[in-house]
Amino acid sequence: MASAALTLPRVLLASAALRISLMVYGEWQDAHLEVRYTDVDYLVFSDAAASVAAGRSPFARATYRYSPLLAYLLLPNSLLHPAWGKLLFSAADLLVGLFINTILKLRGVPDRTRIWSVIAWLFNPFTFTIGTRGNCRVLQAAF
């Protein structure tokens, strides 16, 4: 059994808090520093979503080379808040952590090893930075 400090809900909550903190920091960095935190492709995704919201094709922007589905998934960037996509991508990242736990549980992996495997994914700087910067690659990992 995993120790009380390392339960799946606590790990997910801490991981979600980290991602939200990074998104908030990223907004500050984008507004105040020359080097942006936000992935340049996120601006392309957001422009495509704005184009769809205006009734046009996501391919109106010459640099948009992604699935139209991505533009539709990011419609709330134009309608609710520009950080919607980053929240979506970060949620997909947390979902991958849940998938890791579920797959390992189905394979009979002990609780402690499962939790540490989830931690290895969710607290890997490479993985948590991808979604919080607005890169959609984490959706591929979740799918």
Description:
- The structure is a single chain.
- This protein is mainly alpha-helical and 143 residues long.
- It is built from eight helices and no strands.
- Helix 1 runs parallel beside helix 6, helix 1 packs across helix 7 and helix 5 runs antiparallel to helix 7.
- The longest helix is centred in the N-terminal third of the chain and has 25 residues.
- The two termini are 29 Å apart.
The proportion of residues forming helix, as a percent range, comes to: 55-70%
**Rg calc:** 17 Å
How does the helix and strand content classify structurally?
Answer: mainly alpha
Helix tally?
A: 8
Query: From N to C, what is the helix and strand string?
Result: HHHHHHHH
- List the uncertain runs: none
* Strands, count: 0
Task: Indicate the overall shape.
Answer: globular
What integer is the average pLDDT? 93
**What portion of residues belong to β-strands?**
under 5%
What is the CA–CA distance across the termini? Answer: 29 Å
Largest sheet composition:
none
Organism: Zizania palustris (Northern wild rice)
GO biological process, one term: GPI anchor biosynthetic process
Pathway: Glycolipid biosynthesis; glycosylphosphatidylinositol-anchor biosynthesis
GO molecular function, one term: GPI mannosyltransferase activity
